């Protein structure tokens, strides 16, 4: 794409066309001459060096992979100091806007389950089924986009990393979103697929509860969602975690409880205890059998309590 085409499509990047802001710049709705709607990510020029790395990383990453649960890159633009990425437009925007934004859209359990399973399948592809091993590094509700049928697609691959087949983890500086971050990555910089799996567990709880993982306006025991969920689990009151609107609408309670259990398995403090995404998909699909008993999430583990300020208050 040339810059003029994208400038015209987005009405000169008008604020009325702003869809949202990512870590490296705003995303605008655009309309091409043939009527096709697109989403244009305009990388921030004031972060030029990092923006260039982000731009090249995202182009390389997303052009090498294709899956129905990953956002499709249509093209890019690199003219002068302009760096833009052009994606398919997702009619129902991002998951966070529906769960705890200003949207009036209600998601019933069937739709929430579809989203939970779709994200898992997208991650399974990245971790296990692609020709290259990829860790996303920034799985969160705002990076899950929804099409017109509420099928989820994972977006924003700017922080994603190719992963050597012969390494259990990479030692790297932290990059991502606090509150969704696995303790071994936030504290020690140890990055692996298991960090994505931890983040996925947080997102699943957000989908079921319809709130952000951290809300400091709530009473202390409710402020961090995984901690609150675990306390309800210990009291056999997990039903209190479910969005009241979903309870009123009616749902398969057994399936919801099993899905929360799967989320707890993703949130285990030791990375090696978290199941791979292929097992998570299988657990979600079969909806049967006895699941492994989860261990308390890391914020309750004395050895990892240092992670609390990093994880909870980000």
TrEMBL record:
SUPFAM superfamilies documented for this protein: Protein kinase-like (PK-like)
UniProt KW Nucleotide-binding keyword: yes
Pfam families membership: Pkinase
Sorted UniProt keywords: ATP-binding, Kinase, Nucleotide-binding, Transferase
GO molecular function, one term: protein serine/threonine kinase activity
Entries under PROSITE patterns matching the protein: PROTEIN_KINASE_DOM (PS50011), PROTEIN_KINASE_ST (PS00108)
Domain Protein kinase: 13-300
PANTHER family cross-referenced by the UniProt entry: CYSTEINE-RICH RECEPTOR-LIKE PROTEIN KINASE 3
Protein name in UniProt: Serine-threonine protein kinase, plant-type
Organism: Solanum tuberosum (Potato)
């Amino acid at each position: 794409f040339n810059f003029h085409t994208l400038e015209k499509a987005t009405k000169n990047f008008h604020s009325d066309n702003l869809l949202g802001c990512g870590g490296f710049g705003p995303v605008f709705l655009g309309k091409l001459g043939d009527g096709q709607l697109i989403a244009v990510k305009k990388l921030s020029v004031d972060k030029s060096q990092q923006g260039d790395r982000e731009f090249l990383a995202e182009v390389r990453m997303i052009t090498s992979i294709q899956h129905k649960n990953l956002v499709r890159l249509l093209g890019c633009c690199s003219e002068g100091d302009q760096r833009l990425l052009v994606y398919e437009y997702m009619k129902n925007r991002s998951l966070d806007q529906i769960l705890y934004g200003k949207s009036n859209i209600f998601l019933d359990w069937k739709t929430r389950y579809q989203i939970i399973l779709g994200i898992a399948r997208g991650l399974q592809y990245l971790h296990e089924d692609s020709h290259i091993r990829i860790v996303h590094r920034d799985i969160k509700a705002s990076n899950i986009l929804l099409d017109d049928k509420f099928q989820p697609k994972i977006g924003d691959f700017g922080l994603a990393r190719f992963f050597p087949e012969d390494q259990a983890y990479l030692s790297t500086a932290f990059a991502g979103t606090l509150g969704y971050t696995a303790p071994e990555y936030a504290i020690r910089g140890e990055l692996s697929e298991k960090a994505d799996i931890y983040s996925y567990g947080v997102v699943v709880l957000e989908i079921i509860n319809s709130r952000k993982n951290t809300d400091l306006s709530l009473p202390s025991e409710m402020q961090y969602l995984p901690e609150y969920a675990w306390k309800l689990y210990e009291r056999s009151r997990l039903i209190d975690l479910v969005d009241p609107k979903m309870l009123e609408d009616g749902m398969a309670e057994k399936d919801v409880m099993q899905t929360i259990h799967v989320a707890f398995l993703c949130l285990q403090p030791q990375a090696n205890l978290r199941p791979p995404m292929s097992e998570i998909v299988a657990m979600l699909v079969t909806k049967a059998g006895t699941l492994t008993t989860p261990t308390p999430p890391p914020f309750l583990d004395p050895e990892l309590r240092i992670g609390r300020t990093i994880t909870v208050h980000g």
